[in-house]
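Supplementary Methods S3. Input chains for the assembly prediction are listed below.
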Amino acid sequence: MSATATAAFKPFSRAEMAQRAAADIPEGWYVNLGIGIPTMISDYVPMDREVIFHSENGVLGMGPAPAKDKIEPWLINAGKQYVTMRAGGSFCHHADSFSMIRGGHLDLCVLGAFQVADNGDIANWATSENDTAPAVGGAMDLAAGAKRLWVLMEHTTKDGQSKLVTKCSYPLTAPGAVKRVYTNLATLDVTDRGFVVLGMAPGLSFDDLQARTEAKLHLPA
Amino acid sequence: MSATATAAFKPFSRAEMAQRAAADIPEGWYVNLGIGIPTMISDYVPMDREVIFHSENGVLGMGPAPAKDKIEPWLINAGKQYVTMRAGGSFCHHADSFSMIRGGHLDLCVLGAFQVADNGDIANWATSENDTAPAVGGAMDLAAGAKRLWVLMEHTTKDGQSKLVTKCSYPLTAPGAVKRVYTNLATLDVTDRGFVVLGMAPGLSFDDLQARTEAKLHLPA
Amino acid sequence: MINKIVQSMADTMAGIKDGSVVLLAGFGSVGQPNALIDGLIEQGATNLTVACNNAGAGHTGLARLMELGRVRRIICSFPRSSDPVVFETLYRAGKIELEIVPQGTLAERMRAAGAGVSAFFTATGVGTKMAVGKEHREIDGRTYILEQALKGDVGLVEAWEADRWGNLTFKQAGRNFNPVCAMASALTLVQSQHIRELGEIDPDHVVTPGIFVDRVLHVPYGDPSGF
Amino acid sequence: MINKIVQSMADTMAGIKDGSVVLLAGFGSVGQPNALIDGLIEQGATNLTVACNNAGAGHTGLARLMELGRVRRIICSFPRSSDPVVFETLYRAGKIELEIVPQGTLAERMRAAGAGVSAFFTATGVGTKMAVGKEHREIDGRTYILEQALKGDVGLVEAWEADRWGNLTFKQAGRNFNPVCAMASALTLVQSQHIRELGEIDPDHVVTPGIFVDRVLHVPYGDPSGF
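Predicted structure tokens for the full assembly:
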């Protein structure tokens, strides 16, 4: 699928993608942010809108990255970056931490992905059935366990392939799990009808977006 | 089975039964004592022989009963008696406490019983198949989970029925679990051969003991 | 600002529906949320299933709730008590259903519900009446039975300290079933002896994190007694 | 007097057999018992199965143990790292077996082993490669797969504080897999930054009670680094 000629448009930057997702998270949610771009979301949630960030390695109530001279060596997130702890945070062991995930206690998880299908399937851990040593980490637990799964990713691969597909060609992380996708081109809900476009990058038309998307897109009902 | 005429003998008192069991517990064991006579065992383990007593309600490292003016209202054992905590003790929640039991971490549990069979079956929670509201508590967890199960009980019922039987007539707590029995008449191991008599009350002969016991008794090989 | 601390018993109990499964923590009266049970009595929900280690004593608390005919079914390990007259009378009259569960299986079933484990194999109860009708399986040479997760619609919990995010600590043996009732329940209601400022509880010492807690009521009742 | 504190690495490692299943705690290098891994390298046991979240980095620690050909099989969730060259070389050469397990399933399988749960049903991995060959079951309208307990012959643990009964605390995110490795292993070996007098650790703050611990070695190594 190559893009048809379109008028000039301005894709969302990664920061804007994170910002858009952050704006949709209400106060009081317990949220796990996957490694990579999703981690940026917390930078755009103001401290006075209390959202409680969870990390798989037993950290609940993370704050922003520490100043370089305030690093606590035992305080890292699942991406193995130094973080801080907010007042009201707590530590627990790995089985307790994954109880929060697997027991359905997280309001939201945001992951990156290789592909999302219009039935909500997500593929984000291996790029081939024969990956030499695929690394799954906590992705399957998060995708299967959180109350809501959102995906934050580029709309297309570097060579222009749509990452929103009718069927994932890569190994699944979880079937039917994704509820919403934020890309550099659009925000989309995954519904019974498939992908419903909630918003687009400035200057982009619905037809432009469809041209860049393998899966069929829908307008809100 | 009624007792045959025998020479005078002196049954062990409850305190002596507890004392005999206590003498057989080596330092370093993690031990759960059931409600009733077994609880008395801890009184006969000297404080300098460190045995770590566990109670189902999340108490590990119990010490003796407190003086009346030293009662801590939140510090009770599974029998709902006030206890003390030794230095080195710890509290945990019920699922963690039963992980210790069910995960095979207790070296020993000592329970009371209605009946013990010579294959190690124990019946200690209900006296009829149609008990109106039988109360099992943690008995089945302890019987199935501890590394060793000992029983401390009278040798016979009040009306002279043997409590060491060939087959339990009461509902089982666990099959094949009991390793040793301390009664007011004898100490017995449960082996592949059945009950093996390790010791008897002063003045009692093996034949006297057999006469009071439904199950067949054996002498040590 | 997140604030799970509520100001009245009516606010604490809001929304409990008839037919709910209520997980009730406590072991005897230690760590037992007596004020919340009274609140539930007042609130009025009926046709309840109550899971609790014991089945009430005397004529107060859980026994009172049963006496009022509000409990359809009780799931417990130890229905005997110093004064079990209410339970026994109802049970003999066929007015209450009883499911007896070994104490460790009861705690583990709640923990499983909170942890996303729908069912698990345990050796407890194998070869006994508890195993009748349950799936048996031999694993590595030992026989196990399959037990199901036990989810609560409502969990009633007693804490020693709580903050506005719902973080909890417990006092000594008052911990008992409280953490598993909290994690297994869709709506977890807490009475706490002390309310702490956010951050006052050391993050390494939080026992039940606020993610498992919905509402906290300050009930500084003093010592447990009367078990 | 119970004294689980040992004085030398040799005493700590005594008795580890070839072919052992080793549960190795830590998440990156935080809460990872590096000194004990070095001790295991020195001790010499081989043909090991190692369960750990990661599969080692660089040429030290677990990576070194693998490089020496001592690890037959690795069970982990995330074999990638900043420098996974040792693992990847061995894996491509077919010299090491890999079992990939979702991180939560890995933690839960260890916890299950410690808690006497031989197997459990979880929704994680359903509909993926992880579910292939596993028993599926629908419970209350959702599909689950059966996962088995993961027992260790040996558990390697890093604690912040320990006493002579083996009670442990952990520092911040250093807790991670340590408590479940401790409870799941037949022989649990601990390196601890601090040794406390018995009774110094508040009974309400003990995280891993001594019942899950066999030997403690004092290793005041300072800060983790290099993950």
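The longest strand of chain A covers residues 84-91. The first helix of chain A runs from residue 14 to 23.
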